[in-house]
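TL;DR need structure tokens for one chain.
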Amino acid sequence: MSHSLRLGLCASFVAILVVAASSAYADRVKLKNGKVVEGVVIKQSSGYWVKATDGQTYKFEDSEVASVEQGPVVKPGTPAAPTPGVAAKPGTPGAKPTVVVSFSATRAKCATIDSAVAAVALWQQFIDNSPGSPDLPVAKEELAKWKQLADTGAEKIKGRWVGGEERKQLIAKVHALQKEADDLLQKNQTLLAIKKLEELANVYPNSFEANFTIGFIS
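>> reply
TL;DR here they are.
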């Protein structure tokens, strides 16, 4: 299977995900330039692949992204559904309420999150909205920890956060294995290519391209 065909199939797969998703639900990527893109977000080794709700496909590097949020997107004029563990401050009728997420809810969310940048946004939100909280010192420590992970490009791999030089070496190995697999596919040596892709997926299960190709060939 050619490299271009494989990329086309990957793009088609993402398009299917978008069609299957509810029109009231989308992930949200906020860029550092202020732009916000909504759609299906897939984490890649050095950034994010987004199939937007307008049908366009975008690729953003980690350095371009300010935060990534997952959750329902409420259409204008539709009341937002209540979120467990979240309380809304009363305000002027018709005004958008300020959402206050508890310390425990923020920590629980970050424990399962797959994006350090998103965790930074969640802790910053808690600190900004809870100036009098007794948990503020611990929250600031958590924010500093997640900022360190985000700054080193850390990624959650096999349940463990990997960043800095360790991640660079891992990604270099992944790229080498991917190139070997691509070359084997070009030569129609499919069984050997699958072995390389399985080796890649074992050391780096976050590879969407490797997992999709293995599934497609199978």
